[in-house]
Amino acid sequence: MSEPLYDLVITGATVLTGAPASHAIDDAVIAISDGRFARIEAASRDAAPLRAHRSLHLPGRVVTPGLINVHTHANLSMVRGVAEDLGFAPAYTPGIPQGHMVTPDEAYAIARLGALEALLFGSTLINDTFVHADVVTPAMADVGLRVWSCGRIHDVDFSGVSVGRWDHVDAIGDKTLGEAIALAERYDGKSGGRIGVQLAAHAPDTCSTPFLRRIARAAEDTGLRVTTHLSQSKVELARIRERDGMSPPELLDELGLLNDRLTAAHCIHVSDGDIARIGNAGVHVAHIAKGNATGATIAPTHRLRAAGAKLTLGTDNMHADMVEVMRWALAVGRIQLGAVTPDWQPETVFEMATLAGARAMGLEDEIGSIEIGKRADFVAFDFRRPHLTPMTNALGNLVHVAQGRDAEVVAVDGELMVVDGKPTRVDADAVRRDAALAIEALWVRARGS
């Protein structure tokens, strides 16, 4: 029988498969057919070269699964370099551009910048929430990566939140939840399975208790997973304690939202009882290692993990470098322990950025590791650079020293979306220019000038 003709064959690279109990494969051969991994093995001197429509010989590179960013807001690049130093989330901060200020055209331009940034840094899936999701979802997917997206679901009037006014309005809840369900009906599973929707309940304090109950029913009725911010601030804790007489995790538990189909970002301000609840429910915790540390906070990741929570990684606001986030997660975890331990190593955070992220998205059978039969989402990092030499330990170099901008090749479903560090589907300069103009206009309005 003749050797099959593959769509893409990669040779010469070191492969970190991300599969459970898997080690690095030096001088590997990867073959891809119909958008899926068909062969993954060490090269053999005696074997004939595999036949392929396209071949890439990548010595000195390290190939990993595509990175999975389970919590981000692509449009918040609009406050990059400013919001990080204000000490609080942008939606709660006066004097800077807010989501309710963004027009659909501006959201389109800025979201494409965020999606492009994520792709160039090696993310092949982002789970994004913000505004105008009907516009930005296909726009981001067209850049080339997988996009799970949803408009933020809330019934608070966000125009008052940044100045301390909390008005919950039924009409706002009807609109945001209705738009999310309509988005799922229109886009979930589309673009060859590259687009999806999770119901993005913004936060317990920006959703009234009756409205949270409606979201729980909607999740049950539609079968969609839920993503939210949880215990992200002391303001949130105070609001829920005053309003409901309990903590945010207790509230979500009572309403049926605290379960293994929930991805909860932050989980910083949690009591021992909260940690036990989150762990018992098997919640996927989106650890925002860099963003939280920038704001002088750290989630109790070790206690959450010990309780049963499933740790994943997200970039949240202002940047999209998941490689940097892995490094921050490793470092702040060790700071909490006060020691370097065998169970908090580069492979720990690498798994959080890949296969654990796939589990949070309900996609662990499809993506998250380089295994035969899975969709061919991968990144090739260029290790032929001074800061990545020597390559004694590829995974150690990746987590401790590499950066997202070291990504040379990025593929989704075996399609090359980035080659030589440049996108194949869009004009990067045009995307950047359009977004810069949109952001400039937003800042002018926010300043009232």
TrEMBL record:
The keyword Hydrolase applies. Gene3D superfamilies: Metal-dependent hydrolases, Urease, subunit C, domain 1. InterPro entries: Amidohydro-rel, Metal-dep_hydrolase_composite, Metal_Hydrolase, MTA/SAH_deaminase. Its EC number is 3.5.4.28, 3.5.4.31. Residues 62-416 form the Amidohydrolase-related domain. Pfam families: Amidohydro_1 (PF01979). It is an enzyme of class 3 (hydrolase). One of its GO terms (molecular function) is 5'-methylthioadenosine deaminase activity. Keywords: Hydrolase. Transmembrane segments: none annotated. Belongs to the metallo-dependent hydrolases superfamily. ATZ/TRZ family. This is 5-methylthioadenosine/S-adenosylhomocysteine deaminase.
